[in-house]
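EI: anyone free to look at a 149-residue chain?
SC: sure, send it
EI:
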Amino acid sequence: MIRMLIQLVVSFFATISFAVLFNVPKKEFFYCGMTGVIGWFFYLLIFDSMHSVVFANFISSVVITVVSRLFAVNRKLPVTIFLISGIFPLVPGAGIYYTTYYIITNEITLAVSKGVETIGIALAIAFGIMLVFLIPQKLFLFGKNQKAK
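SC: here you go
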């Protein structure tokens, strides 16, 4: 439990740091951080129960994209402000590093294994984002006053 809380706090600050890097307005830092925390929480939850890195990344990217779209509607900002920052904790940077490391050290079997896993994670993130963007924007406007045509 303590370990999970530490990871969530770290993901909050890592996401905010990434938002700073991309010049997100300061008043949106908290929402960007919360997007990362919510995504990382779902990643930990799914990974602990199913032990599948790829599936955990898929579900987390779906959740992050939904949260990003909701924040974008409520804050009247582009969804990319929250999505790009929020997806940062899921990016398989370590997988890319280890794949390259194993290639350089001539451990081809490990390189292929880690490379396939990394590609699977990247595809899961991309498909998770794409799946949520197939949902019409109207569904994210609930609770908002919509003008009747």
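EI: Helices lie at 2-21, 29-50, 53-75, 79-87, 93-104, 108-133.
SC: 👍
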